[in-house]
Write a structure and sequence with these properties.
Elements (H helix, E strand, L loop, with lengths): L11 H23 L7 H13 L11 H11 L19 H13 L10 H17 L4 E5 L2 H16 L3 E5 L4 H9 L6 E3 L8 H10 L7 E6 L11 H11 L2 E6 L23 E5 L11 E5 L13 H4 L1 H5 L18 H35 L4 E3 L7 E6 L4 H13 L6 E5 L2 E7 L7 H14 L3
Parallel strand pairs: 2-3, 2-4, 4-5, 5-6
Antiparallel strand pairs: 1-7, 6-7, 8-9, 9-11, 10-11
The protein binds pyridoxal-5'-phosphate.
Protein name: Amino acid decarboxylase
Pfam family, one: Pyridoxal_deC
InterPro entries: PyrdxlP-dep_de-COase, PyrdxlP-dep_Trfase, PyrdxlP-dep_Trfase_major, PyrdxlP-dep_Trfase_small
Length: 454
């Protein structure tokens, strides 16, 4: 076998063109073989088909058809967020232009741990993160793999700024905050009730009054866009309480942060500008392929905690001679330029284009809520705040709700999530596909109706 061609360099374009055709063809045949939002017949059948397609993962002799075979199999066995009936999670259908930019990132393969691996990419990252940070009224922002890493970093920076941290979270907070406390050797977070799905300020006040931690070591984590219901905590009230009690405020806006892009919905985030740190995921409302996370910090000084030296990446004499020191912009070392797809998207669509996408998915959620509300056999949890709609067949026991979801998953007909709120189990649809039409939503509701035993 001749030495395989590289993606970059002079051979790159000629080597890639036919391979890209292969990929696009396999994506098409795979999606056609699937024929719906996710593969039919459940996990065992999907696993068997994937096992067959893979065969020996490391054969003695290579297989030139591996690209087509595996991409086809993956597409055939995917839950496709571009299908209007795939609407369970914060699982975004990526924009074509963002994905094309991501391909360029893969081809050039800059690594953001040192300037000599990413001369232009490091400048692009610095410019775009500063601009996004400014949108969030912050001084700077780090690129992360997503909300989980952003939340971990936020807790780490709080701990380093105050020599310890006691997290105080709502009962509605993302599980990654609990894991961050565990990972960082901090005490268990104190959990404040969120009876209506959002953090209760009176209960927060009581918790902060009761906690006797040294001033500054209390860290409140509020949520702007809960994963289960898309609800936004009362941010101004929480910010007031944090100020009154000398607590630090982190806002996990992994989901809701994207509302900033919309003139119509931005006001829902009032109070966001009072946070010390903000988590934002552009692989949610932002339509990026994974990964595209950010952690914004109000005080750039907080980031000095991440400064770190490794002679081969940022020797002092290199830094003094003017080579930018990048290592302190992440806890990772080798790091993809996820900023490229973000930059291309922001510039291609502009505020207007991105705001329109946000408005579209929020409007879809309202449409779907209307359908549910006027349907005699369904109950709506509440009017949607962002683009999540929770509903359930009226009077159905929880195990029926769970079974309806699993039946639709098993048959490959629809992907909905589940959420337990007010003590009951709800079907969750997270609408993130701006191409979904009202007819699709009506079809989804009909499917659920047809699957629910009378
Ligand atoms: C999605 C989400 C996270 C986790 O983000 P990942 O990108 O999955 O790591 C954290 N917090 C909230 C509120 C989320 O919705």
């Amino acid at each position: 076998m001749p030495t395989p061609p590289l993606a970059s360099g002079p051979q790159g374009p000629d080597a890639l063109r036919p391979l890209l055709d292969t990929v696009l063809d396999a994506l098409g045949t795979g999606a056609a073989a699937r024929g719906g939002p996710l593969p039919a017949d459940g996990p065992e059948a999907v696993a068997a088909r994937m096992r067959d397609a893979l065969g020996d993962p490391l054969p003695a002799e290579g297989d030139p058809h591996a690209l087509h075979r595996l991409v086809h199999a993956l597409a055939a066995g995917s839950a496709d967020p571009a299908d209007p009936l795939c609407a369970a999670h914060l699982h975004t259908p990526p924009l074509a232009v963002a994905t094309a930019a991501d391909l360029a990132a893969s081809i050039l393969n800059p690594s953001l741990d040192s300037w000599d691996q990413a001369p232009a990419a490091s400048t692009l990252e610095s410019l775009v993160t500063k601009a996004l940070a400014a949108e969030l009224h912050c001084a700077d922002a780090l690129v992360t793999t997503g909300g989980t890493e952003s939340n971990q970093l936020a807790v780490l920076l709080a701990r380093e700024a105050h020599g310890g941290a006691q997290l105080v979270v709502g009962a509605n907070a993302h599980h990654s905050l609990h894991r961050a406390a565990w990972l960082l050797g901090l005490p268990e977070p104190v959990t404040v009730p969120a009876p209506a799905g959002t953090l209760d300020p009176a209960a927060l006040d009581a918790a902060l009054t009761h906690l006797q931690g040294p001033r500054g070591s209390l860290v409140v984590a509020a949520t702007a866009g809960t994963t289960d219901a898309g609800l936004i905590d009362p941010l101004p009230d929480i910010a007031d309480l944090c100020e009154a009690h000398g607590a630090r405020l982190h806002i996990d806006a992994a989901y809701g942060g994207g509302l900033l892009l919309s003139d119509r919905h931005r006001a829902l985030l009032d109070g966001l500008d009072r946070a010390h740190t903000i988590t934002l995921d552009l692989h949610k409302l932002g339509w990026q392929p994974v990964a595209a996370g950010l952690l914004a910090v109000r005080d750039a000084q907080d980031l000095t905690a991440l400064n770190h030296r490794a002679d081969y990446l940022n020797a002092d004499d290199d830094t003094e001679a003017g080579l930018p020191d990048l290592l302190g912009r992440s806890l990772r070392t080798t790091r993809r330029p996820d900023i490229l797809k973000i930059a291309v998207t922001l510039k291609t669509l502009g505020r207007t284009g991105l705001g329109a996408l946000v408005d579209q998915v929020c409007a879809l959620a309202q449409d779907f809520a209307d359908l549910v509300e006027t349907h005699p056999r369904f109950e709506l949890y509440d009017r949607p705040t962002i683009s999540t709609v929770l509903f359930r067949p009226t009077d159905a026991p929880d195990d029926t709700v769970a079974a309806v979801r699993r039946n639709l998953l098993h048959d490959g007909r629809a992907v909905m999530g589940r959420a337990r709120l007010d003590g009951r189990l709800w079907l969750k649809t997270t609408l993130l596909n701006p191409h979904t039409r009202p007819d699709d939503l009506a079809a989804l509701l009909k499917l659920v109706e047809g699957t629910t035993p009378r």
